[in-house]
Amino acid sequence: MAEVTLKGISKTYPGTRASGPVLAVDNLSLSIADGEFVVLVGPSGCGKTTTLRMVAGLEDVASGEIVIGGRTVNNVHPRDRDIAMVFQNYALYPHMTVRKNMAFALKMRKVPKAEIDRRVEHTARILGLDNLLDRKPRELSGGQRQRVALGRAIVREPKAFLFDEPLSNLDAKLRVSTRAELKALHQRLKTTTIYVTHDQEEAMTLGDRIVVMAGGRIQQEGPPLEVYRRPANRFVASFIGTPPMNFLSGQLADLPSGLIYKEASGVSIPLPDAPAALRASANRPMVMGIRPQGFTLTNSSSGIPLTVNIVEPLGDSLDLSCSTDGGTSIIARIPARSTITPPASGASAHFAIDPSHCHFFEPGDFGARIA
Ligand SMILES: Nc1ncnc2c1ncn2[C@@H]1O[C@H](COP(=O)(O)OP(=O)(O)OP(=O)(O)O)[C@@H](O)[C@H]1O
Ligand SMILES: [Mg+2]
Predict the structure, then answer these.
(1) Residue 368 domain flag
(2) CB 3.0-4.6 Å disulfide test: which of 50, 191, 344, 367 passes with 361?
(3) DSSP class of residue 110?
(4) Ligand 1 atom closest to Cα of residue 47
């Protein structure tokens, strides 16, 4: 096992004549501790795969340094970096049995036969593949094939695992169970892992730490709940959490009765418990973010009035697609067991807002967190 450190790495692809060069990864620095499970998460094209491929040595690094287990590996051949990568499109050898697929890399490395058998059988047991060792890939389900691909990486006993969306070929149910298996596996093996996904829920559930990327840069890194509770900017706030955070444009008014957020289209949201530091940002444009989970239906007319356009029952909760009088869209997620009858589509309703689900940002898609 090993610590992996990325020191200001960048990568520019030549691109086409029309597009010009593409800066895929921009001066990215990140330290992954020995045994840690770090998830790189971000939208398509933000540079996740490129970052991983640079660590694996499949892509050269334009500038910066990659250190694995104390050794700078910029010029070390992928084969000699002692890391194992699992891709979304893992190709198993179709003519080989599960056993041979798993043993292949070790055989290439001239590991003694007894040692190969020991590792393959041990790994097959961990992954629940011990009864399938003599089957060929076409005789396996998608989830079993995925586990063979994992097994191939595990038998190598690498210093680190690199995973690039390894679950995206699985159906939703299998994805959730394989995700849990992966987590259990990591708790057992404690191998340093860098895991890439565009799925924020997968990132939240798997990572000791998540690294949110956009435009080739790190937007925020930290334990999942810390990032969820204190998003560093509006991009992170919009990307982490489902349904996505609602955003309002407006400004704060510092009135004798307390702070009030006045949304541009006319909604006023009193903020009795707002931190005093917010005062300094009154009377200038700022964005207010409210998580859908921050809304509750009220019986009184004291809350924020919204028109409910669509009601989506989800079992234990309801998603209400609402709009303000001024036409701003808002999603509220309320518990289905709410004692108040949920409004019908087209009705208007009043909502209270939980201040712990409110966030404030500078204007702009990447506006920094305020207070
Ligand atoms: N071989 C290449 N040549 C030119 N541009 C590339 C190449 N590979 C990737 N890019 C560009 O680099 C940027 C980062 O791509 P990358 O594959 O790292 O994104 P990603 O975060 O893995 O996205 P996804 O979630 O879609 O897999 C994108 O703008 C992409 O179009
Ligand atoms: Mg990718």
Answers:
(1) no
(2) 367
(3) T
(4) 18
Strand partners, 352: 296
**Residue 24 beta carbon below 6 angstroms from any ligand 1 atom:** yes
Identify the domain containing residue 344 by its residue range.
Answer: 246-361
pLDDT band of residue 55 (cuts 50, 70, 90) is: very high
Whether 85 maps to a domain, the answer reads yes
Q: Both 280 and 228 in a single domain?
A: no
Pocket of ligand 1 contains residue 104 by CB under 6 Å: no
Q: Name which residue sits closest to atom 16 of ligand 1, judged by CA.
A: 47
Ligand 1, atom 31, lies closest to the CA of 45
pLDDT in tens, 175-200: 888 888 889 889 988 999 999 999 99
Q: Hey, what are 99's tokens?
A: 């056993």
Picking from 91, 106, 92, 96, the residue whose alpha carbon sits closest to that of residue 134 is 96
DSSP bridge pairs for 304:
351
Per the structure block, which two tokens stand in for 266?
């006319």
Q: Which residues contact 333 (CB under 8 A, 6 or more apart)?
A: 243, 292, 293, 295, 314, 317, 318, 319, 320
48 lines ligand 1 (CB under 6 A): yes
